[in-house]
Amino acid sequence: MNKKTVSKINLFFSGLLSRMEENRDFFTDITIQFKSGAKIFPAKILLNESGVTLDY
Question: I need a surface site. Which of 5, 9, 37, 54 has the fewest CB within 10 A?
């Protein structure tokens, strides 16, 4: 990945995480599917008392 793409992804996820932390009552988790070719990689972002956990 080039640096522009990585910075855009970082900005997108930081925005999601800040919304998730601000609105704890509305979010339980975020489910994501990454695709590379024909293979799908599931991921889940969970909000805990200690912070945010990425289950990949």
Answer: 37
